[in-house]
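Contributing new records

If you add data, match the layout below exactly. Sequence lines come first and carry their own label; structure lines follow with theirs. Keep one chain per record. Anything else will be rejected by the validation script.
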Amino acid sequence: MKLTKYLCALTLACSTASFAKEQELKLGIGGAIIIQDEGYKGVGSETEFVPAIAVEYGDFRLLGPYASYTFYRSENFEIAATGMLRLDGYEQADDELFAGMEDRDMSFDFGFEAEIDTDFGEFGVKFTHDVSSTHEGYEASLSYGIPMRVKQGRIMPYVSANFTSEDLANYYYGVKRSEATTSRSFYEVDSATNMEIGISSDWFFGENHMIKADASYTAFDSTVKDSPLVDKSGTFQFLLGYVYVF
C-alpha cells in the first residue's frame, strides 16, 4: 500500500496550519480516507482509513511512519533529513494473484528532501534508500508545482518524475524464478521512471482545524507495466484528511 506519501503530505500541511512556534511542542490528531489502485491484476481500488498523530518540536516533525528534521532553512529554500516506513507490498492472502509468491514487506527508508520556492513555482527533490535490507533499493524524485493561495487555503497542481532503482521496482513488481508458474511467468523489472500528475490542497479553519484533499495519477514506466502482476497503465490515488492541532 502506498500510504506513506500521503502521511508525508499531511505532516507538511499540519506544519503549515499551526505548527509555527519555535522550540514549542505542538501536537495534532486526525486521520485520512485514502482510495487507491496500485495496478495489480485482480486487485481493484481499495479504501483505507489511516489515523494520524502529529508531533512537532522545533525543526523535528513526526506523523505516523514519517519523520523529518529540517537542518537548513532560508527564505526560499530548505533541506531536511527524512525517515519513513514504505508501506508498499502484499501478502499471499491479499489475492489469488499472489498464491505461491513470497510476501513483499514494508521497508524503512532514509534520505533527504529539499524544496525551493521561486517566482515560477515550487521545485522539490527527494532521495530515499532502504536501510532495512528489505528491497535494498532507492527512489529519487523531482517535482514542480504551482501554489495558488485562495481564501482559507492553498491549491497546488504539480508534476513529478519518480525514479525507482532496479532493486526496488523488481522487489514489488517482479516475479522470481521460484515463483513462476504456467500463468505467471518469470519477470525481472528494470529501473523505472514513473510520471505523476496531481493536485494537492490544504484548507484551514481557524488555528486548529485543517482539511487536506489530494488527487493524483501515476503513469507506469513500461518495465513495470509489462509485469505479469500488472494489468493497468498506472495508478490513481485520492486522499481526504482532517487534523486537529492543539
